[in-house]
Amino acid sequence: MNFTFPREIEDFRNEVRTFLEPYAELDGYLGQGAVWPQVRALFQAMGERGWLSLAWPRALGGEARGPAWEYVLWDEVAYARAARNPLSAGIVARSLIRSGSEAQRARWLPPIRSGELHFSLAYSEPEAGSDLAAVQVRAQREGETYVISGQKCWQSYAQDMDCFWLLARTGEPDSRARGLSLFICEKDREGVRVDPLPTLDGDQLNEVYFDEVRLPEDHRVGPENEAWGIMAEALADERHIQFPPGRVR
Fold this sequence. Notes:
By secondary structure, the chain is an alpha+beta fold.
């Protein structure tokens, strides 16, 4: 078996290594919260090179590269301890490409591609933990608006992000996985509050409160009550680029 990448991909790996040299002291892989302005600038520099959208379709501003290109990119970024793959260019963008409307892709993908727009996952809750089918944050529909109420917990880097990738219940309270919907919620919307949860290493997680936050219908991604399938597909994206093995080379 041949365990090497094609020459063109190894050339790209060397290009990434050279690009990362000025960021040798960044140390944003585990300590992003302390150096977020520099990490954000790194992502913007990557966006200028088209590296945040390597595998996106060309029609959406990507380069239609194969998955090995992304793998090598984030493998090297992790090994350099520079940063983690941003959720915006990973889970969020790929879910929008698969399940978002044409208008949503036109609105959200360009600032994600440029490294300007960043997301925190708003999945877990104090009473649900990792059992996402037990989520109880409510999205109550009122005409063409959803009213979001409830609490999320343990959100990584929410203090610095621009938006939440929000999982909320639109079905009956006991509907489990059959009653969940996904939303994009800007952090600066009225009724959103982010409180820190300090960690032992000096960093922080966060708890996020939604106090009757009003979201337009066009902020829902995919059909109502069908978020479970979208999230299941996103798990493959997570394993591919969110947890690169190069950090323990």
